[in-house]
Known about the structure:
With 623 residues, this protein is α+β, with helices and mostly antiparallel strands. Helices cover 37% and strands 18% of the residues.
Amino acid sequence: xxxxxxxxxxxxxxxxxxxxxxxxxxxxxxxxxxxxxxxxxxxxxxxxxxxxxxxxxxxxxxxxxxxxxxxxxxxxxxxxxxxxxxxxxxxxxxxxxxxxxxxxxxxxxxxxxxxxxxxxxxxxxxxxxxxxxxxxxxxxxxxxxxxxxxxxxxxxxxxxxxxxxxxxxxxxxxxxxxxxxxxxxxxxxxxxxxxxxxxxxxxxxxxxxxxxxxxxxxxxxxxxxxxxxxxxxxxxxxxxxxxxxxxxxxxxxxxxxxxxxxxxxxxxxxxxxxxxxxxxxxxxxxxxxxxxxxxxxxxxxxxxxxxxxxxxxxxxxxxxxxxxxxxxxxxxxxxxxxxxxxxxxxxxxxxxxxxxxxxxxxxxxxxxxxxxxxxxxxxxxxxxxxxxxxxxxxxxxxxxxxxxxxxxxxxxxxxxxxxxxxxxxxxxxxxxxxxxxxxxxxxxxxxxxxxxxxxxxxxxxxxxxxxxxxxxxxxxxxxxxxxxxxxxxxxxxxxxxxxxxxxxxxxxxxxxxxxxxxxxxxxxxxxxxxxxxxxxxxxxxxxxxxxxxxxxxxxxxxxxxxxxxxxxxxxxxxxxxxxxxxxxxxxxxxxxxxxxxxxxxxxxxxxxxxxxxxxxxxxxxxx
Length: 623
């Protein structure tokens, strides 16, 4: 019935969809197995992509040739660039999406991807011979062979949904859990654990009094995620802000005795940075209110998502508390909030390629690795899909380092440090965040992806043209001067000192008060020059401004990254016997033997490994 595939991808969420697309676009024959083909890349929680650090990841996925940025651009209903008041390393794009269009567009793109087949079924076991995966076994009793398998099961592995004292199996409300696969992996020697996440009520927008809420519009000029020619939004839909109150908190507390979290029925650890509303009012009892984001689910639906009101309390408590929120006095609930517990596999059992250490050609990506968020899942899926394709063709692995991408930070954190709670990305996790800005993801990553055959020729041509224009503009700004009469009025208006003689344009642009668009309006030679620079003009001009204003910081950070990489890439082999190095601390010998790091850099980031332990390793290797 089935041919032998190069790659089987299990699960069609954000990780599985990116994995299948990447492997297929590279030329592998791929089978994507999902329990419900109508829910491909479904937005199970909030209807949004991007956000702080997550927006950088989406742009990196796009720069590498993934689909998330394109799908988001085609289905967004609002765009905002977060943290504009801060430095450009913190700028993070975020989009509200039409969740139904989002899933439909993902399916359309996948169905138009060559080399990709689909099968609706549940995988309950993997097939292994001589510690190497050879395929999967499904709930229908079908055995399908492949050279590599990527597991992206999300929250479905032995998923249990909690609403108050009610418990029932499910990977999402209304969808069955996946049973059997966890046991299959444990029997192969893998460690497993439990985690928890949650989601809030969905509300009928016709029952919300928006006049009592604070409107939150999108940016005046909507941006986009993809570096391709997707079109920016011309019309946007507003979100709204609401707040809880002490009265709301008092109502919620009446349900605490029936809370599965407080009663101990939930054993899994929940996300620190996206806690339930009951967890927030307990942990932050000094706060009289908490902010809520009222987010539309799409262009044509009345359904709204109440971001910040995640809960597993009994539904009647959720409803009673909701009606105490200003603007929600007559609210009608479409779907209650709930918590979900699910199995995950500690990611320290993986290599940098996301291949498992125990079973060759078996890859894990997404929430199965203990992460949370569509963006983190998509990034892992993309990297697993790339590396599965490369591995079965005996080509070099594709690994991104911490100074090359947020994706590199994400994977290094997972496999080196492990997780004890659902992991989400923040800009603070990246030590090279000035280098890893959202605006330069194409410069950083498209050439790398093009080299392995994923990023298209068209993408690469755009990067080359953009790079040439970028350098031309920088050279012009560094070499050309302006007269005092051209800019002194602008300088006075911006409350910055006037000039008395001809001055290089760059000397004005480095001033924090002066923007390049202001200079274009006042310096005719600059405006004339830029008329000939038409490729990605606005985006390129913004990148030029960032580079000029932060050039010294960018250079310093790059210098640090280059210096550390001298030790970062010193290899440590899997057969290395750490026990014989008595100069290492006992803890170091124990953890290095267990983790088997690939490089000195990875070893240095393992908890409990001291600088002196690293020095011992370097000296030994030098000998």
